[in-house]
Design brief:
This protein is mainly β and 178 residues long. Helix content is 0%, strand content 52%. The chain contains no helices and 17 strands. The chain has strands at residues 2-4, 10-12, 17-24, 29-35, 38-39, 43-50, 53-60, 72-80, 86-96, 116-121, 127-132, 140-145, 150-151, 153-156, 163-164, 167-168, 170-175. The strands form 5 sheets. It has a 5-stranded mixed beta sheet, with no helix packed on it. A hairpin with a 5-residue loop joins strand 10 and strand 11 (127-132). It starts with a strand and ends with a strand.
Length: 178
């Protein structure tokens, strides 16, 4: 069997997860893990035994630049040392970006008009940024200017690790009619 310390077989880029692989054999098992067919860089590998059951654990930290963001097959391989036969156990592992601290800017700043950016994280692991303008006064009216590349809101998704649109709109100040 093969499990990870993450719910739903998701892993956040930059955050370590614990892999656990259990196998039974009459002789010693040697374990290794692959992601998308490539051997993984692992830390804290450990194998324990209880009778003929072997339990292997290791830590894996997906990199931000991981080409497997969006999903890959994670495979635990257990090799029986006598005879060289392999036992395989597979699971799909979805690696995603961490948007929780990613900030965004407005496409432009205008003197006299303060852009206020607020953030909200969603249960799905995305982050939504919003821009707002100051309240109108008796002498100034504020207006939010947006475009295709600068919206009133922008969302960073765990699948891309980037905001869409790339910028937030900006506040303009207009003189009120007297």
């Amino acid at each position: 069997s093969f499990t990870t310390s993450q719910d739903g077989s998701f892993a956040k880029a930059g955050s370590p997860i614990t892999l656990t692989c259990v196998g039974q054999a009459g002789s010693v098992l040697q374990f290794r893990a692959t992601l998308g067919g490539d051997k993984m860089e692992l830390a804290n590998e450990n194998t324990t035994t209880s009778g003929n059951e072997y339990t292997w654990t290791a830590e894996y930290t997906p990199a931000e630049s991981n080409s497997f963001i969006g999903g890959a097959t994670l495979q635990c391989q257990a090799m029986i040392t006598e005879g060289g036969d392999y036992l395989y156990s597979e699971m799909n592992l979805m690696i995603y970006y961490d948007c929780s601290n990613l900030e965004i800017t407005t496409i432009r700043e205008v003197d006299g008009a303060t852009n206020t950016i607020s953030y909200e994280s969603t249960e799905e692991g995305n982050r939504v940024a919003s821009v707002s303008c100051p309240n109108d006064t008796s002498t100034e009216i504020y207006s939010l200017s947006t475009s295709a590349s600068a919206g009133a809101t922008a969302t960073c998704t765990k699948e891309t690790g980037q905001y869409d649109p790339s910028y937030l709109g900006f506040c303009q100040v207009l003189n009120a009619a007297t």
